[in-house]
């Protein structure tokens, strides 16, 4: 039940975000005097609506997004009523049209920023000093967290029947113990522990020195066998190695909370990192299409493949089911930021496509004026329709792929 509630809550949160996106277009358009005739949440048949002034507001039967109708977005629009000629959108200065068309993405960014600021002063944001590279991890003191088992292959998965029990647990080690030696070899950091384990035969009995609550002690453990790649080549061929059945407890906290003022700087820093990550994710999309198809046809799902709103909602459900509300809200932030950036891409029918055309018209008019040539006028959107349809088709196929993968082979964050 908690999982279903989480799925519904996340889907509802995204629906509200998209509705606010359209409200951003509507509010700025009305503020400039443009005519807005419709604002609806959802698509399909009208469930309920009312009219206030010149705008009809309402709810559609399919709760997937929303829309607002601004009269005369392009010179080719034919729904302009007599007397409204001066209020059509395309007649307004380019800077006003830019504000209106970017207001949707700005709304997503605002939602993400406000949510991040609240998280910064409550649950905390990821610690920028937390070890993020393999080298940083290996330099950490070997303070260990016990695993439930030893997974016998180089894959991150939950324990399964037949997996060997953790040798460390059988040797009465505890979470938070700092390992200081293995078979008499001093251990100063986690990397040295991994190296020392590679020098021991699987199945042999090792003498482990450790410190608990400031007191040194010693125990013996029969090491399990697992499969891992070489330490200096994570992509290399796996081979049999000894395993103790422990992970690392980093010496630095994973999250940091801030005061109301300090939270502004932390939010800005985290947003900058998120912007870089979003651009990199967009660049990786084409190369991830084969991986999506591989997942749909029965292969293992790559956790780095794109997800749809369906997949994000499922992850939100998992987060609620496991009481991981920080994960829930970080997913919400990431998706809002991604939607905001994606909508600004200079492609029709996205908002960024309309913005790009508006500025192209402005630059072209300026250039022709300098050349003392007649103004070429507005771009003919009808000539761009084949390109627009191509973008819609590619986007539709990609969306279908991600939704299908999220249904038949979803990404999971927790063992269920």
Care to give the gist of this entry?
It comes from Micromonospora musae. GO terms for molecular function: metalloendopeptidase activity. The chain is α+β, with helices and mostly antiparallel strands and 416 residues long.
What do you see in this structure?
It is a single chain. A 4-stranded antiparallel β-sheet has the order 8-7-9-10. A two-stranded antiparallel sheet has the order 1-2. The protein is elongated and about 90 Å long. The protein folds into 2 domains: 1-126 and 272-408, no CATH class; 134-248, Pdz3 Domain, CATH 2.30.42. By secondary structure, the protein is an alpha+beta fold. 28% of the residues are buried. It has helices spanning 2-32, 94-121, 134-138, 167-170, 190-198, 262-296, 309-321, 325-343, 351-370, 385-408, and strands at 36-52, 55-70, 125-126, 144-146, 149-150, 164-165, 178-182, 185-186, 205-212, 215-222, 224-228, 239-243, 246-248, 255-256. Helix 2 (94-121) packs across helix 9. It is built from 10 helices and 14 strands. Its cofactor is Zn(2+). Residues 163-204 form the PDZ domain. Belongs to the peptidase M50B family. Its main location: membrane. It holds the Pfam family Peptidase_M50.
**Low-pLDDT residue spans:** none
Number of strands: 14
* Estimated helix fraction: 40-55%
Count the DSSP helices: 10
Strand proportion, as a percent range, falls in 15-25%
Largest sheet geometry: 4 strands, antiparallel
Taken together, the total number of domains comes to 2
Please state how the strands of the largest beta sheet are arranged side by side: 8-7-9-10
Q: What's the overall geometry?
A: elongated
Order of helices and strands: HEEHEHEEEHEEHEEEEEEHHHHH
What structural class do the secondary elements suggest? alpha+beta
Rg, Cα atoms, Å: 28 Å
CA distance, first residue to last residue: 13 Å
Average pLDDT for all residues: 89
């Amino acid at each position: 039940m908690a999982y279903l509630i989480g799925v519904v809550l996340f889907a509802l949160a995204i629906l509200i975000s998209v509705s606010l996106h359209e409200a951003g277009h509507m509010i700025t358009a009305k503020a400039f005097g443009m005519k807005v005739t419709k604002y609806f949440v959802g698509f399909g048949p009208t469930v309920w609506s009312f009219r206030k002034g010149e705008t009809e507001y309402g709810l559609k039967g399919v709760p997937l997004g929303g829309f607002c109708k601004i009269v005369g977005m392009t010179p080719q629009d034919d729904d302009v009523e007599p007397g409204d000629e001066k209020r059509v959108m395309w007649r307004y200065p380019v800077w006003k049209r830019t504000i209106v068309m970017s207001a949707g993405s700005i709304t997503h960014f605002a939602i993400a920023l406000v949510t991040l600021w609240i998280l910064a002063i409550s649950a905390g944001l990821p610690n920028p000093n937390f070890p993020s590279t393999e080298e940083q991890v290996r330099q950490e003191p070997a303070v260990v967290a016990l695993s439930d088992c030893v997974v016998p292959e180089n894959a991150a998965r939950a324990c399964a029947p037949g997996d060997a029990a953790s040798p460390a647990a059988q040797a009465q080690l505890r979470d938070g113990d700092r390992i200081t030696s293995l078979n008499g070899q001093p251990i100063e950091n986690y990397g040295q522990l991994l190296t020392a384990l590679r020098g021991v035969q699987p199945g042999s009995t090792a003498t482990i020195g450790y410190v608990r609550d400031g007191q040194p002690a010693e125990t013996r453990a029969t090491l399990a066998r697992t499969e891992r790649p070489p330490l200096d080549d994570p992509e290399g061929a796996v081979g049999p190695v000894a395993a103790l059945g422990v992970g690392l407890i980093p010496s630095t906290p994973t999250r940091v909370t801030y005061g109301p003022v300090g939270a502004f700087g932390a939010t800005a820093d985290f947003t900058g990192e998120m912007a870089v990550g979003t651009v990199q994710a967009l660049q990786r999309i084409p190369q991830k299409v084969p991986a999506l198809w591989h997942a749909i046809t029965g292969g293992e799902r790559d956790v780095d493949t794109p997800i749809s709103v369906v997949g994000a909602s499922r992850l939100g459900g998992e987060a609620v089911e496991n009481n991981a509300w920080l994960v829930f809200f970080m997913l919400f932030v990431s998706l809002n930021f991604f939607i905001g950036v994606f909508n600004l891409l200079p492609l029709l029918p996205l908002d960024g496509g309309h913005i790009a055309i508006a500025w192209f018209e402005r630059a072209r008019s300026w250039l022709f004026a300098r050349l003392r040539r007649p103004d070429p006028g507005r771009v003919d959107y009808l000539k761009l329709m084949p390109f627009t349809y191509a973008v819609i088709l590619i986007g539709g196929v990609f969306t279908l792929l991600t939704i299908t993968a999220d249904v038949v082979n979803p990404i999971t964050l927790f063992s269920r």
